[in-house]
Amino acid sequence: MPNGFLWYYGPVFSDQAMKLLRKARSGIYPRRTYVDPWGPDFDLECSLIHSRFVNFTKRLPRPLATRALDMRTYLGKSAQPRRSKPITDCIPVIAVLPYVLRGCFPVELERLRTLAYGLTLGGLYAMAEDKLIDSQASPALSHTLLAPSLYCEFLRTLHGIFPPGSAFWTYHDRFFREYQMAELAHGNEIGRTGRTHPRRYCNIVRAKSAPMKLAVCGMGILSGREEHISQILKSFDHWIVGHQLHDDIVDWREDYCARRQSLIGAKIGRLVRAGRNACPLSELTRAVHSSDVIESMLEESARWFARAEKSAVGIDCGDWIRFVRDFASVTSATVRDLVTLKAAILLGH
């Protein structure tokens, strides 16, 4: 499997390193994206999912259809304009899991496509709902009505491959209940008050991502290899925590300024209170880079990826393990880059 991330590295104080340094001063990091489990074949699969989604939007009232194709519905403020992405760029990230898991759970391609399309709808639904909850997007009526439309299409699609008595729906009820409880707990349990408990944060991350686990359960049921579901779910839980910790690092300044909760945000909050109560963003960025906050969080992310790989040992899931290793390799390289950036900042470059 080729390296599936958009990332780059440079020698110490090279032009590339200095570009990264300028980004680091502003708190901006490149965002990695896993894109390529099958090469050109996966591009074709994603284009089929996109075509099917566009056909679905044509059945919606026009205001809802427009909203469904606008990435601000799913990414909120982070979709404009610096990170603007069309739906076609986001589908690979949402739909990738069934294709990565096919080596462990061999499923006939047409049913795999149906599952991937259904899970894409479910992912977009959860993202749209999350942005409404976080008030990152305008609560326009079309936005409010779109979320249930996406969820209804998600159910309709998956009922085509999982009959009402299938164990899939037991998992569905369990995972969406976990997701709902996590959304309720998130604002109450985690804040930038310095009292964030790492274990509680990781539990909420796992629960908020619970609907994504339907990819594992769906593939296991369709392939008739349900005995491997629990082991891959355990590996997934470790992977998603590592992934979220790294994502929090990428977004730390944006999230901190917007007062969105995260584990690194709590650490930065304690760092600020240890100095003075308020400082300009440039000084805050320098203080963060002069500390070990980011490095320690990256190292913690890497530990979770290692646990994810270890949990999958013993079953035939090479593509999944390579998927996890790709994320881990990016995190490890980021640690090395930050040592260089930190030294440059402290030396006044």
How would you characterize the largest beta sheet? Answer: none
**Low-confidence runs of at least 5 consecutive residues:** 1-18, 24-33, 190-194
What is the string of helix and strand elements?
HHHHHHHHHHHHHHHH
How many β strands by DSSP?
0
| Separate helix tally | 16
How much is the average pLDDT?
81
Question: What integer value in Å does the Rg equal?
Answer: 21 Å
Dominant shape? globular
- Binned strand content: under 5%
Please give a structural write-up:
With 349 residues, the protein is mainly alpha-helical. The protein has helices spanning 15-25, 40-57, 62-68, 72-75, 87-100, 109-133, 141-158, 167-189, 198-208, 214-223, 229-250, 252-257, 263-275, 281-290, 293-311, 318-346. Residues 1-18, 24-33 and 190-194 have low confidence and may be disordered.
Question: Helices and strands in order, then pairings?
Answer:
Blueprint: H1 15-25, H2 40-57, H3 62-68, H4 72-75, H5 87-100, H6 109-133, H7 141-158, H8 167-189, H9 198-208, H10 214-223, H11 229-250, H12 252-257, H13 263-275, H14 281-290, H15 293-311, H16 318-346
